[in-house]
TrEMBL record:
PROSITE patterns found in the cross-reference section: MFS
CDD domains with a match to the protein in the record: MFS_LmrB_MDR_like
Name of the protein: DHA2 family efflux MFS transporter permease subunit
Localization terms from the record: Cell membrane
Positions of transmembrane segments: 55-76, 88-109, 121-140, 146-167, 179-202, 208-227, 239-259, 271-290, 311-333, 345-363, 375-393, 399-418, 514-535
Organism from which the protein derives: Paractinoplanes bogorensis
Key word Transmembrane helix present: yes
Every Major facilitator superfamily (MFS) profile domain range: 55-540
Length: 559
């Protein structure tokens, strides 16, 4: 009996023509090497044909919605504070709630892709995300906004892993590098497009349009998906792992809830932090031991027996902790220390995206020809060099210097993230792709949450060490006002009767706090060189048999 993923490819490719079904295919579960005989008239190896690019367009639209939404909302947090009369800790849950929803739903994506079909599931994810976006625009309180963001996250959590599964199946193993480069463009343009778009929408219209912008994009993506994605009939071949779901999804959500509460409480000893982290960790560890027992676990950790997948996943995990955590603080520095508007802060982040756009297509082509272990270390050197520039920030650091640092970082980013993901997925069999994509996305999400929490805690604790201004109180909370808080507030137009020398001292303290936090981020970036040293340095076949078995050279799937 054919597994769902293999039958999908058999029906799709035979329906499209240009592929002859090998007898071995219908006799049992195939591998890439025995499933198909390619048409001699097919496109040259390595090139992305029109059919693949059409499918990639759907996935890129979904990725743009999901990734832009994260960065757009990040620059809107100060606006939410004013609009809903809330503290920063409260509005931060608009980001945290979204993250928790992602962590809850991503483990289900691999099983659901085989159970319901990738096209149907992807369109459902688009619908949930778009509906959640519209509801966010109608929110009348911070509590409502957080609840609607959770709904958004349920859709957004499925968009990336299902999208990666669709693209990988469509292109075949030999073209994963170039395909990941296509998908990587929105992933790296998010840091540039999100802040610029968010800043412009907030200044030109209102915060509601930060979410309403997803409505037309979502409608276009749904219509596009209906016509562009091939129909894949669901052929349930796996039972659902309910026990695993009851352990992993709540475990991840509780652990990340505790981690995300650290900036608010400022200490790991707070009950809300350590209790939820402990319960979550126990559930996740319990799942790790349990997952090797069922035949079809919710998250297939057996895939980590594949050395390429395990090394690439670890490299990506450490890299995301280092870069994504501190990366979110770059626009915060421009907003809080330099007093820039949301639009100007977004524009100042543009060099990073420009650098990524220049190197990503090159890195995608190289990933299909040269082992990533020989290219990624050079890209990481660029990231480390650019990141070092932000350890030197002050109250008046040259924008030319900072934008140059961002550009160098972008050059490195374009040659790092997608090649590592390519290395993780290219050696998997078709039936493993959905579960492999899910595993990679889970690790990436956890790493991003941990990195963001670490950097937020360090920055918050440093800022809280600023001297208190005698007799001054925070107008929002009534708590004593520190010099750093007053300086940041005045930078954003607040009228406070504070002497200029105190404000200058507070601003310098805040700038030093950012610099200290960036030093920690830089140390984590340097630590990333350890796992990437073990990335493959020899050219290997694109995919192989079951994890742990010798790889088999494979034909290319042409349409």
């Amino acid at each position: 009996m054919l597994l769902a993923a293999d039958r999908w490819q058999h029906e799709y490719l035979c329906a499209r023509g240009g592929v002859r079904c090998a007898p071995a295919f219908c006799e049992g579960p195939p591998s890439w090497g025995s499933s198909f005989v390619t048409d001699q008239a097919a496109a040259p190896p390595g090139k992305l044909d029109a059919a693949v690019l059409k499918i990639a367009g759907v996935v890129v639209l979904g990725a743009i919605m999901s990734i832009l939404d994260i960065t757009v909302v990040s620059v809107a947090l100060p606006t939410f504070q004013t609009e809903f009369n809330a503290t920063y800790a409260q509005v931060a849950w608009t980001m945290t709630g979204y993250t928790l929803a992602l962590a809850t739903v991503i483990p289900l994506s691999g099983w659901a892709a085989d159970r319901f079909g990738t096209k149907r599931l992807y369109m459902l994810a688009l619908l949930l995300f778009t509906a959640g976006s519209v509801l966010c625009a109608t929110a009348g309180s911070i509590e409502q906004l957080v609840a609607y963001r959770v709904l958004q996250g349920l859709g957004g959590g499925m968009l990336m892993p299902i999208g990666m599964t669709i693209m990988t199946r469509a292109a075949g193993p030999e073209r994963i590098g170039r395909l990941m480069a296509v998908l990587g463009v929105p992933m790296l343009l998010g840091p540039i497009g999100g802040p610029i778009l968010g800043g412009w929408l907030i200044e030109a219209a209102s915060w509601h349009w930060v979410f309403l912008i997803n409505l037309p994009i979502g409608i276009i993506a749904l219509v596009y998906a209906q016509f562009a994605l091939p129909k894949d009939e669901a052929h349930p071949s796996e039972s659902f792992d309910f026990v695993g779901m009851l352990m992993l999804s709540p475990g991840l959500a509780l652990f990340l809830f505790g981690v995300s509460s650290l900036p608010e409480t400022g200490t790991i000893t707070a009950t809300k932090v350590w209790v939820t982290m402990l319960i979550g960790a126990v559930l996740v560890i319990g799942f790790v031991f349990y997952s090797f027992k069922p035949k079809h676990p919710l998250l297939d950790l057996r895939l980590l027996k594949n050395r390429n997948l395990s090394v690439a996943s670890l490299s990506l995990f450490v890299f995301v902790i280092a870069f994504m955590g501190a990366g979110l603080l770059f626009p915060s520095y421009f907003l809080q220390i330099r007093g820039e508007s949301t639009l100007d802060a977004g524009l100042l982040m543009a060099p990073q995206g420009i650098g990524a756009v220049l190197t990503m297509p090159i890195a995608g082509m190289l990933a299909d020809k040269i082992p990533v272990g020989r290219t990624v270390p050079f890209a990481m050197v660029l990231i480390a060099a650019g990141f070092f520039g932000f350890t030197q920030v002050g109250t008046d650091t040259s924008y030319v210097f900072l934008c140059g640092s961002l550009f160098v970082m972008g050059l490195g980013m374009g040659g790092t993230m997608m090649p590592i993901m390519t290395s993780a997925l290219r050696t998997l069999q078709p039936v493993e792709v959905a579960r492999g994509s899910t595993l990679v996305n889970i690790l990436q999400q956890i790493g991003g949450s941990i990195g963001t929490a670490i950097m937020s805690v360090i920055l918050t604790s440093r800022l809280n060490g600023s001297a208190v201004i005698p007799g001054a109180a925070n107008p929002q909370t009534g708590e004593p006002l520190t010099e750093a808080q007053a300086a940041i507030a005045v930078n954003h137009g607040a009228q406070l009767p504070i002497p200029p020398d105190i404000l200058q001292r507070g601003l310098q303290f805040a700038a030093d706090s950012f610099a200290t936090t960036f030093w920690v981020g830089f140390a984590l970036v340097v630590a990333t060189f350890i796992p990437i040293a073990f990335l493959p340095k020899r050219r290997k076949p694109a995919t192989g048999g079951a994890p742990g078995e010798p790889a088999v050279e494979t034909p290319i799937l042409m349409h």
